[in-house]
Write a structure and sequence with these properties.
The structure is a single chain. The protein has nine helices and ten strands. By secondary structure, it is α/β, with parallel strands linked by helices. The protein has one domain: Metallo-beta-lactamase, Chain A (4-Layer Sandwich), CATH 3.60.15.10. Strand 2 and strand 3 form a beta hairpin. It is elongated. It binds zinc ion. The site of zinc ion has 8 residues, from helix 4.
Length: 286
């Protein structure tokens, strides 16, 4: 690798142009080494980062992971990629949140093909160990109950279980946090992929490093939470201040959601003290 290439692959956070160059290079490497094309939807936001990543995988036919939001320009780019690659073999969803699946009906109206997902009205119900097209699904509940990671072509499509940057929120449902941490650990132990293609953010070339980082991040939050509880803190506000001090105000409701999942885990393990205020999450999409 030339010095020049190394420079562009490691942009500083304050250099948005460098980041774009790096992303273009990453996309080129993915295409040449893995035959995977990323089409990023123009739906940037707090949760979607620079936009939802739609992945077009293989050819003759191609498969699509997470068609993304229903935005005509995005759909056209996905369709062009499908045409380019000899048609559509099928669509697979990492999970059914709208920013990942809204375009499904429109895409399948244009290219009739089976839809696979973890729940809802799908043609193929994803199950661990049962291949779908070129993908080996791995249950990764946590961000949502129906979440799967998909392994194919030496890459792992991680949806919102692992993002290209930052961390994800964990939706409280029975066993959410412990199952999520178990899923991360199980992914980490696999040896059939070396690159992560996340639902949002940049491609992750150091898959093992990122999975290690995610596991230790969750353990670190848990340790801080246990410390805060041992120190006598009991209200939601106190716990958020102690455990998520760096989270900006607009992201605090999502920190509450993850706090609830951490508290559930401690309760299930029988180590949650009495009198802890639990976040109210009525109507939250799990
Ligand atoms: Zn998402």
């Amino acid at each position: 690798m030339s010095a020049n290439v190394e420079t562009v692959s490691a942009p500083s956070a304050s250099d948005p142009d460098g980041e774009v160059v790096s992303e273009v290079k990453a996309d080129g490497d993915l295409l040449s080494g893995w035959d995977i094309l990323r089409v990023r939807a123009p739906n940037p936001g707090l949760l979607t980062l620079t936009g939802t990543n739609t992945w077009v995988v293989g050819r003759g036919p191609a498969w699509v992971v997470d068609p993304g939001p229903l935005i005509e320009t995005h759909l056209e780019r996905v369709c062009a990629a499908i045409d380019d690659r000899g048609g559509l073999g099928g669509v697979v969803l990492t999970h059914d949140h709208e920013d990942h699946c809204e375009a499904v009906p429109e895409l399948l109206a244009r290219y009739p093909a089976p839809l696979a997902g973890g729940r809802g009205e799908v043609d193929v119900q994803l199950r661990e160990g049962v291949r779908v097209g070129p993908f080996d699904p791995v249950a990764t509940p946590g961000h949502s109950i129906d979440h799967f990671a998909l392994i194919s072509h030496g890459a792992c499509f991680t949806g919102d279980a692992v993002l290209g940057e930052g961390s994800v929120f964990i939706a409280p449902h029975p066993g959410a946090m412990s199952n999520y941490m178990l899923a991360l650990t199980r992914l980490r132990r696999r040896e059939d992929f070396n690159v992560l293609c996340p639902g949002h953010g940049p491609v992750v070339w150091d898959a093992d490093g990122k999975l290690d980082e995610y596991v230790s991040h969750r353990l670190e939050r848990e340790r801080k939470l246990v410390d805060a509880l041992e120190g006598g803190l009991r209200t939601e506000g106190e716990l958020l201040d102690a455990v998520w001090p760096e989270v900006p105000k607009q992201m605090r409701p999502l920190a509450s959601v993850t706090l609830a999942a951490h508290l559930d885990k401690l309760e299930n393990e029988g180590v949650l003290p009495a009198g802890v205020q639990r976040p109210m999450l009525e109507g939250f999409d799990r």
